Amino acid sequence: MSESMNQPIHDPILSIKNLTVVYKDTLFSLKKSRFSRPAVDGVSLDVPHRGTIGIVGESGCGKSTIAKSILMMTEPCGGEILFNGTGLDSWRRNRLAYYSKVQMIWQDPFSSINPKMRIQEIISRPLHNFFHLSSDEIAQRLHATIRKVGLTEDHLVMYPHELSGGGRQRVTIARALISEPILLIADEPTSALDVSIQAQILNLLKELKQDMALSMVFISHNISVVEFLCDSICVMYMGRIVESAPREVLVKDHRHWYTTLLFESLPNGPRPKERKFKVDLGELAVCEKGCSFAPRCIRAEKLCFESSPDLVEIGPDHFCACHFHA
Ligand SMILES: Nc1ncnc2c1ncn2[C@@H]1O[C@H](COP(=O)(O)OP(=O)(O)O)[C@@H](O)[C@H]1O
Ligand SMILES: [Mg+2]
């Protein structure tokens, strides 16, 4: 069985192939038609060892569902995910080994930590779960980890409510890193923070991934945040990747009209007169047969409502799903 980490690191460290996730209709689900659409629809992507892949798209496009699938928190109905060359079906039999090497940071630091535990217990808890270490070894790792994330000894005896939002997010980062993972899944880790704190946490993540040789899947609805941190970017719309490329290519030469809309929507984007999307009605109208972005697209033609474009390579490592890419 190959699901131990005593083997060389496989590159790509994470490989997602044709992942499809459909949430079942629930008795109370009012919007039946939307719920029966796949939340994630045929997504494929690779995370190179020590690389950072960004997933960006507006709320509801399926970003967290990908994160939950990687973390074995939801059951895909199609496709497969391989971590270090081994499928999650095998890793499911050895979850402790998996979670010691694949860790996560969530959006809301307050709801992802136990308010009744002191910071030192919160951060060191994974060590008790994953390893048999002496109390000296635990203390050593705890102190080394808090230094890495910019916390001090004084913080260790505090409770979460005594820390700021940024401080609490540092705690969740320390908890994620103490088991020395090789892959970090960060789902909107700065979205719940004040703007000034966001930059500090992003800088911290950038330093940590360098220092600890981390590979990362970084999820955000904000394309400028993803641009700051990631080597490659996947743009998602309604469960599908509509464009993906290395960062510089995506920033300077994006070709999907939805990617254009994301860049134009940034606060420092072009002035209203210079925008291609003069008015974005923001309608999430569903186009059953064609391109899911067609109802909002400024370039949509009859074909776009009739046939769904495939994701095709339009340049080196640059993929786009648009009949009339710019
Ligand atoms: N547990 C669930 N049950 C049913 N539908 C869900 C569930 N979680 C998410 N969804 C739906 O799946 C789609 C994708 O959600 P999600 O992955 O959370 O998107 P994002 O993280 O991009 O905002 C949305 O339409 C959402 O309403
Ligand atoms: Mg989400």
Folded structure, characterized:
By secondary structure, the protein is an alpha/beta fold. It has a single domain (14-253), classed as Rossmann fold (3-Layer(aba) Sandwich), CATH 3.40.50.300. Helices cover 34% and strands 20% of the residues. The protein has helices spanning 32-35, 63-70, 88-91, 95-101, 119-130, 135-149, 153-156, 165-177, 195-211, 223-229, 247-253, 257-264, 302-306, and strands at 14-21, 40-47, 52-56, 78-83, 86-87, 102-105, 183-187, 215-220, 232-237, 240-246, 312-315, 318-320. An eight-stranded mixed sheet has the order 6-7-8-3-9-10-12-11, with helices on both faces. Strands 2-1-4-5 form a four-stranded antiparallel sheet. β4 and β5 form a beta hairpin. The longest helix has 17 residues, at 195-211. The protein is globular and about 70 Å long. The structure holds adenosine-5'-diphosphate (ADP) and magnesium ion. Residues 23, 34-35, 39, 57, 59-65 line the site of adenosine-5'-diphosphate (ADP).
